[in-house]
Amino acid sequence: MHLMEILRYRPVPAAAVFFGITRRCPLHCKHCSTSSLLDSEEYPEQLFRGFAETFTAENRPEFVLMSGGEALLRPRLVQDIAELSRAVGARSHVLSGLYFAEHGRIPRPVKRAIDAVDHFSASLDVFHEEEVPRAAVFRVLKELMDEGKQVSLQLTGTGPGDPYLADLTAEVRRVFDDRVPMLVAPVSPHGRADAWLKQAPLPRGEVTPAPCAVSAWPVIGFNGQVTACGNQDVMDGKVPLPPHLYLGHIAKDDWPTIKARAIGNPMVRAIRATGPEYLAERHGSKGGCGAEGYCQTCWVLSKDPAIPRRVRELALEPTTRLVEERTEEMLVGAGAVSFAQQYGITEYAELVTLGLEEATAGAGAQQTAGSTP
Ligand code: SF4
Fold first, then answer.
1. Atom 6 (ligand 1): residue with closest C-alpha?
2. What's 93's domain CATH number?
3. I need a labelling partner for 354 at 20 to 30 A (CA). Which of 71, 239, 286, 293 fits?
4. 80 near 44, Cβ under 8 Å?
5. By its UniProt entry, which SUPFAM superfamilies does this protein fall under (predicted)?
């Protein structure tokens, strides 16, 4: 499974689910969005396995994405979730910081977990390189690719002019002969990066509809709480959880329940269709909600009762559903590269397509990468 196959589905509600299966990580990357440490929180494996057991062939996500912290600190759990997913027809992906890469061979339990997933992705950036050398990451990727595993890299940098990104992407392309797709995103001011990365707020122009595509897939946090998006400030409790972003908890809710809420929650539907700033401006009792910023506006939407009330009324109107369907069609039609442009660094967006031709040829007609979600 190529990275593009996952990204193509990114705007489709509940097409995938994110599992944050641990907050622990042995690395100490300066930009870690989850502020992970080796003694960070971790909940029983059965909590996550039990939720994956609620997937059925008739009602399942298309993709199951696992990360942490460092997901491969729990290799048996990654393997179990991947196998449970595959048994009902879902495909799986794991993202790792490759904490084991320097120690020669991949540890056997970790290798079994990687073998079980349909796509393996490694994080690599200037901060990871202080913990795990680039050469060790390349060695692991090469070993996996030689066995036919589909892999990708998730890179972060300061922006299009970051010389580190230019150097790294050029080297990856050269070493792997353009066979490794790369998703390149800016460092975000969350977790440990919050202490040193200051971002000036964007100037507020005319507020127009700006759909939030990253609220399409439910996110399970390390504690089992499920939210409509993975905004780290919300997941860390740095801002009070907005009621409209809470989808449930995997200790008591199964996949069909979470999926139904992700698709049907009127506020999440409206955020996906028009974005939070437009909602605030259009339906707020004071023509806005006083917050500056896209997600910052989202966090306070429910504080103005006029907004959820009006959104609930509108959700019942057939034209609203029509607008939502058209928005989803438009975002899906725009494609994976468009998603990478919007949520990553635009200048590097095309790199998500590397290796697609070869992967498509290898997968044959069964998993045609050009198929429409
Ligand atoms: S706008 Fe709301 S739903 Fe979208 S990413 Fe921000 S906090 Fe999450």
1. 295
2. 3.20.20.70
3. 71
4. no
5. Radical SAM enzymes
